[in-house]
Design brief:
- The protein contains 13 helices and 16 strands.
- By secondary structure, it is an alpha+beta fold.
- The strands form four sheets. A five-stranded mixed beta sheet has the order 5-6-1-7-8. It has a four-stranded antiparallel beta sheet with strand order 9-12-10-11, covered by helices on one side.
- β15 and β16 form a beta hairpin.
- The longest helix has 18 residues.
- It is extended.
- The relative contact order is 0.08.
Length: 455
């Protein structure tokens, strides 16, 4: 159990553009996003709608025809039963443009450091320091932002308000979307009547099907069970994620939006739903599947080239029809391959990897990823930008120490090597003088050999 007096009490807005892709397409056609039955369907060149993927559907299409994202176009109702259903191709440049325009509206209400773009259609805003500038109540400020976006762009938005990002997200996902106002507020005091009432673990942000099944094996079937489970058992089963799951069940989230997370290593990838299910493994290496594979690899490598980096891991992934887990295969590249991602050795090893890559069963989704490269990039950059210093002679050390003594100034002793952040590793950062055989610092006395460089 948590004492909410000691938890963060902020004002967080979680704002989502309702059926974003479908809404952008409806507005492009001069239609009301809430009053048209429309689906955005991906389509490969030279094919018809049948093998396409439904990327988004308008609220009316979902309600009237039971459409959901990432279902196949072949699962659509027949035309005679859905005569008013419109199918349109996606326009990603339009979606990116609208997303940036929404971000510009957010910047009218909060500083950049208080805005976290969660996805192309969803953002978190920490309004703790600014909401009072725009209204007498956070709910009214949220309504003002909704109206601003609708009046400017025609888009409808849902907003969850909470005392931390988790409460705001759950308020938006579970409570705000069904409401006419499309706004909901959640506080710590609401946890027993809201979070604990969620029947399915998978409905909670951050809990996927695999994690939910592992929890059920522990006898935890809903959020109430999770909140009243033994934290030690969760920690043993999930590690640090177990602590996070327990905190989540009590509505606790210590994230501060302005304290940005800086990953040590990034991954670049590209994946897509294939136009059909491939039953024969050999088909993957025949056109047009071979072209798809080549395009994925080249796109990812191009991203790496722009970052002047290289990868140490190549991973191929696939998803089987009806499966919930993704099959993965990895190739660990030697760190000595050099910093040119398209070197002949890199190209050959990746080509060989795909040539011998095997999947079990029918393939319906495929991806290509490069990872674990940023740390290597940073290491090389540090080594190039901060070279080892040459050792000073005893005469040079004597001159530096003499000048420091005469001017009553301290000196510092850096090691030749740099630290993990590319800066100096200080053997003695505040040298004051010498007493007997020891060099005296501000805090201690150490016996030092005059080998590192002085400055």
């Amino acid at each position: 159990m948590y004492d909410y007096r000691y938890e963060p009490h902020r004002v967080i807005f979680m704002i989502d553009n309702k059926s974003f892709y479908a809404s952008c397409e409806a507005l492009r056609l001069g239609l009301n996003p809430m009053e048209v039955a429309l689906a955005v369907v991906s389509q490969q060149a030279g094919t018809d709608w049948w093998p396409g993927l439904i990327m988004a559907a308008s609220p009316l299409a979902k309600k009237k025809y039971g459409l959901s994202n990432v279902m196949r176009a072949r699962d659509l109702p027949p035309k005679e039963r859905a005569s008013d259903l419109m199918l349109v191709e996606p326009h990603m440049n339009l979606y990116i443009k609208r997303s940036m325009e929404v971000l510009q509206i957010f910047r009218k209400y909060a500083a950049d450091e208080d805005i976290h773009v969660y996805s192309i259609d969803e953002s978190m805003i920490d309004m703790t320091e600014s909401w009072h500038l725009f209204g007498d109540d956070p709910y009214l400020v949220a309504r003002k932002i909704q109206k601003d976006i609708h009046d400017s762009l025609g888009l409808y938005t849902t907003c969850g308000i909470g005392e931390n990002p988790l409460l705001a997200k759950l308020a938006m996902d579970i409570s705000a979307k069904p409401r006419t106002s499309m706004i909901a507020c959640r506080h710590y005091i609401d946890v027993p009547d809201t979070i604990w009432k969620i029947p399915k673990l998978e409905d909670v942000w951050g809990i996927n099907v695999k994690t939910a099944n592992r929890l059920r094996r522990l006898g935890i079937n809903n959020m109430y069970d999770l909140a009243h489970s033994d934290p030690a058992i969760l920690k043993k089963e999930f590690g640090v994620i177990g602590d996070q799951l327990f905190a989540m069940s009590w509505g606790v989230d210590w994230s501060i939006i302005k304290q940005k997370y800086r990953p040590k290593s990034k991954s670049y990838g590209n994946s897509q739903i294939l136009s059909r299910d491939y039953e024969d493994q050999r088909e993957i290496f025949l056109p047009p599947a071979e072209q798809i594979k080549q395009q994925k690899r080249d796109r990812v490598v191009d991203k790496l080239r722009k970052k002047y980096g290289f990868a140490s891991v190549v991973r191929a992934s696939s998803l089987l029809p009806g499966a919930t887990a993704i099959a993965r295969s990895r190739l660990w590249l030697a760190a000595t391959m050099g910093a040119t991602p398209m070197s002949k050795e890199f190209e050959q090893r990746v080509t060989d990897f795909f040539a011998h890559y095997q999947d079990r069963g029918i393939k319906k989704w495929a991806g290509f990823f490069l990872s674990d490269h940023t740390a290597m990039i940073n290491k090389e950059t540090r080594q190039k930008s901060v070279p080892d210093r040459a050792e000073m002679s005893r005469e040079e050390c004597g001159k530096v120490l003499g000048a420091a003594f005469g001017n009553q100034r301290p000196v510092a002793v850096p090691l030749k090597e740099v630290d993990e952040n590319g800066g100096n590793s200080w053997l003695c950062p505040g040298l004051r003088g010498r007493q007997g055989g020891d060099w005296r610092t501000r805090h201690c006395a150490r016996r030092l050999a005059l080998r590192p460089a002085f400055k």
